[in-house]
Design brief:
Blueprint: H1 14-18, H2 24-32, H3 49-67, E1 68-72, H4 74-80, E2 86-90, H5 96-138, H6 142-192
Antiparallel strand pairs: 1-2
Helix pairs in contact: 3-5, 3-6, 5-6
Length: 193
């Protein structure tokens, strides 16, 4: 849905998204003057409580439906003889962790891949440093040394980009999980009271 002050992250180009350049205007605005509520953007729709709670509730209901079985209530049979009433009883308790995983598995896998890439480039960088040290000692062709230095720089940049996107995505995921859980707890408290 269209909003009055949409987040620039929605319309950001790939380069702007990679380097978080879409966030820069807010930083400059905050540098020039104190930020007010009017300066802030609206949440992306997929981060609003309406969307997050509906997505979580859908997965919760699916898991609840799968884990519920119909069985004749022993209490009804003893009191009034055989009846056709059936009561729902869960086969096993529902794991809230399983519901969260099923709801956000794509984000979790994306974050895991970003972290894996970040850690892999962290391992590769010292290898390039070792190659540069060997290059200086051996008096080899100059282009090899430049190539090692450029590769070391690029892997460092790639590691920085991946770790920052991993951190950003995990923060957003944490906020979304908190929103979904708060809503579920609130609904449960209302049902109990």
């Amino acid at each position: 849905p269209k909003t009055e002050n949409p987040s620039p992250a929605e319309e950001a180009s790939f380069a702007s998204w990679c380097f978080f350049a879409w966030f820069e205007p807010l930083i400059w605005r905050g540098f020039r003057k104190p930020l007010t509520w009017e300066d802030l953007w609206n949440l992306r729709y997929r981060d609003t409580s309406t969307y997050v709670v509906a997505k979580f509730q859908k997965q919760f209901n699916e898991i609840l439906k799968k884990s519920t079985r119909f069985s004749k209530s022993e209490h009804d049979t003893k009191l009034s003889g055989p009846t056709n009433t059936e009561s729902k009883r869960p086969k096993k308790p529902i794991s809230i962790t399983g519901v969260i995983f099923k709801t956000y598995w794509t984000t979790l896998v994306s974050c895991a891949l970003l972290k894996l890439l970040s850690d892999a480039t962290g391992v590769v960088t010292p290898l390039f440093l070792h190659s540069i040290i060997k290059f200086v000692e051996s008096q080899d062709y100059m282009w090899k040394g430049v190539l090692y230095a450029v590769c070391m720089f690029l892997t460092g940049e790639f590691q920085t980009i991946t770790v920052h996107h991993y951190t950003y995505m995990m923060y957003v995921l944490g906020i979304n999980c908190r929103t979904a859980l708060m809503s579920a707890i609130y609904k449960k408290a209302l049902r109990i009271s």
